[in-house]
Write a structure and sequence with these properties.
The protein is of the alpha+beta class and 103 residues long. The protein has one domain: Arc Repressor Mutant, subunit A. The chain is built from 5 helices and 3 strands; from the N terminus they run H-H-E-H-H-E-E-H. Helix 2 crosses helix 3 and helix 3 packs across helix 4.
Amino acid sequence: MLNDALIEQAAHRFALLADPTRLRILQALIDGGELTVGAVAVAAQTSRFNTSQHLSRLSAAGLVARRRDGSSAYYRNIDPTLPVLCDLVCKSLREQAAIIAAG
């Protein structure tokens, strides 16, 4: 059974994952491994500034980690449950779409 603190943490995690731009950013990191902010921005089809803001929030939540190398910052996914969660949700969405299409 979940206590109130865990429910609050889960709600915060789901709120972070509810943003389409953050999902694109996470997908870029899951697919591409460790990437610069610029590379993430290109993959997520958003500006570097917007990407940096989202990466800061994801980092503060412990979902991604940052590594500095000279003047560049590299980000990577550090939560092993994210690819599994994304796969489960996307599989469910594809199955529902197939059912509706066959309808």
